[in-house]
Specification:
Largest sheet: 8 strands, mixed
Order of helices and strands: HHHHHHHHEHEEHEHHHEHEHEHEEE
Radius of gyration: 25 Å
Strand order of the largest sheet: 5-4-6-7-3-8-9-10
Mean pLDDT: 81
Number of strands: 10
Structural class: alpha/beta
Number of helices: 16
Low-confidence stretches: none
C-alpha cells in the first residue's frame, strides 16, 4: 500500500510491524466512520486532516468523507465512492474496496475519536523516525568525511530544534523597536490592542481590558455562576466584533443559546424553553434577540472530555481559516490532559499550563473556568493561579442564584488586586 505523499516514503528504520499497526489503525478508523449511523463522528473527528494519515488510500478516503461532512451529506459506501470519483482519486478506491474496509470494524464506531487521537500520536512519532532516518542517511554517506557528516548532522538537528521552538530569540534592539512602534501608533490615536470585557468597573481595574496572550480565569464554587459570567464576557466581546470560540464540556450548545436569549430579553426560562409567549410583542422581542445574537462571530463545541491537544488543534485551524480573538474554556477540571502516569493535580497543572501556552502561541485571549472547593481554593492544583494573568473569584451568599454578585479580583498582573466588585448575573 502506498504511503501518503505528505510524509514521503517510509523511513528505513521503521519496522514492518510498526507499519502494519499503522495500517490497521487507519483502516479501523475509516471503518468506524463508515459504520457510524448517527453521523456524529465525522464532526467529532473533524480536526483530523488527510496529511495526518500515513497510507495514501486512507488519506484519500478521509478527504472524501470530510468533503461530504462539509456539505452536510450522509456518509456511506455509495456516497464516499461517488465523492472519490468526483475528487479524481485512484479508481481502485471503489465501492468494493470500501466494502472490505467497512467490514473491518474492530471495536465499533463509538471508538472513532480514540482512533483519531492515536493517528495524531503516530503522525508525531513518524516525525521522530524521519529525523532518525535523515541522521542515518548522513552517517551512511561515505562520500563525506566523518567530520563533515557530523557537521551536517549538527546543522540538521539545530534546524529541527529551531523549528520546534515556540518562541524566537531576538536582540534587545529589535524588542525595543517593536515596543516603540506600538507606543507611537497609540500616541497617534490607534486603538489599543486589548479587548474590553464590556464591564466598565472591571475594565478600569484591568487598565482597559484583557490583552491578547492572557489567561483569564473565572473561578468559584459549585453553582456560583462561572459559566454564566464567561458566557457574558464572550457575548460582550463578540458584540465588539471579536471572533469567539466557546468550548463547553458541561453544557450543550442549545442550553447556551437559551441562556443567551434570556440575557438579551430578560424572559423567564419557562418562556424560552417551552415557547409560552404571552403575546406577539413578547414573540417579537424574542425573534429580535435571536436575529441579533445569531449574527455574532461565535463558534461552539460542546464535546465533553476534550483533550487540550485537540483544543490547540482547533484554535490553530480556526485562527488560520477565520481569524480568532477569544477562546472560552468551560472548565479546567473536566478537561482531559491527554497524558498518563500523573495524578489529577499534575494533570490540572498541565492543562492550565497548556491553556496559557495556547493563548501566547496563537495570540488569543483564553477565558477559562475553574472550580473552587469549600475553602475557596483552586481544586486539585495551585498551578492555575501561577499560570493565570487575571483571576476572578465569584462569591455566593445564602444560596444566591441571581442578581448582584460580589466578585473578587484575586489576581491581576495588570493592576490592583484584592478588589471586590459587584456584578450582575
Amino acid at each position: 500500500m502506498s504511503q501518503n505523499n505528505g510524509h514521503g516514503s517510509a523511513p528505513l528504520i521503521m519496522s514492518k510491524e510498526y507499519q502494519r499497526r499503522i495500517n490497521d489503525l487507519e483502516r479501523t478508523f475509516i471503518s468506524a466512520i463508515l459504520n457510524d449511523y448517527t453521523g456524529e463522528q465525522i464532526y467529532r473527528c473533524g480536526y483530523l486532516e488527510p496529511d495526518d494519515f500515513f497510507f495514501m488510500p486512507y488519506a484519500d478516503i478521509w478527504e472524501a468523507m470530510k468533503s461530504l461532512g462539509a456539505d452536510d451529506l450522509g456518509i456511506d459506501i455509495q456516497t464516499v465512492d461517488n465523492r472519490l470519483r468526483a475528487l479524481g482519486k485512484p479508481i481502485e478506491l471503489d465501492a468494493s474496496y470500501l466494502k472490505h474496509v467497512y467490514d473491518d470494524l474492530g471495536l465499533g464506531s463509538t471508538f472513532a475519536e480514540s482512533y483519531a487521537r492515536l493517528i495524531i500520536e503516530n503522525r508525531e512519532r513518524r516525525q521522530l523516525f524521519q529525523v532518525a532516518n535523515t541522521l542515518a542517511t548522513l552517517a551512511n554517506d561515505e562520500t563525506k568525511s566523518s567530520a563533515e557528516a557530523l557537521r551536517r548532522a549538527h546543522a540538521y538537528m539545530t534546524e529541527q530544534l529551531r523549528s520546534q521552538a515556540s518562541g524566537e530569540i531576538i536582540h534587545a534592539r529589535e524588542a525595543y523597536d517593536e515596543y516603540y512602534n506600538d507606543l507611537e501608533r497609540l500616541y497617534q490615536g490607534e486603538k489599543p490592542d486589548y479587548i474590553s470585557t464590556g464591564i466598565a468597573d472591571l475594565d478600569r481595574l484591568l487598565d482597559g481590558g484583557i490583552s491578547r496572550g492572557d489567561l483569564f480565569i473565572v473561578s468559584g464554587p459549585y453553582k456560583s455562576g462561572k459559566s454564566l459570567k464567561m458566557q457574558q464576557l464572550g457575548l460582550n466581546m463578540a458584540s465588539q466584533g471579536m471572533k469567539v470560540f466557546v468550548w463547553s464540556g458541561e453544557m450543550k450548545t442549545r442550553k447556551l443559546i437559551e441562556r443567551a436569549a434570556k440575557m438579551e430579553t430578560g424572559m423567564p426560562n419557562s418562556v424560552l424553553r417551552y415557547g409560552q409567549f404571552e403575546n406577539d410583542r413578547d414573540w417579537k422581542r424574542f425573534t429580535d434577540a435571536c436575529e441579533k445574537q445569531s449574527g455574532l462571530p461565535m463558534l461552539f463545541n460542546d464535546k465533553r472530555g476534550l483533550k487540550v491537544a485537540e483544543l490547540n488543534a482547533h484554535v490553530a485551524k480556526l485562527k488560520a481559516a477565520h481569524g480568532l480573538d477569544v477562546v472560552i474554556f468551560d472548565y479546567i477540571q473536566i478537561a482531559d490532559a491527554g497524558v498518563s502516569n500523573r495524578n489529577r493535580e499534575q494533570e490540572v497543572a498541565y492543562i492550565s499550563g497548556e491553556l496559557k501556552r495556547i493563548a501566547m502561541d496563537h495570540d488569543v485571549i483564553v477565558i477559562a473556568g475553574s472550580q473552587l472547593n469549600e475553602e475557596g481554593k483552586s481544586r486539585e492544583s495551585r498551578a492555575i493561579m501561577n499560570d493565570a494573568d487575571t483571576m476572578l473569584v465569584l462569591q455566593v451568599e445564602n444560596d444566591q442564584t441571581t442578581g448582584p454578585r460580589k466578585v473578587k479580583v484575586e489576581l491581576n498582573r495588570n493592576g490592583p488586586q484584592g478588589v471586590t466588585l459587584e456584578m450582575f448575573l
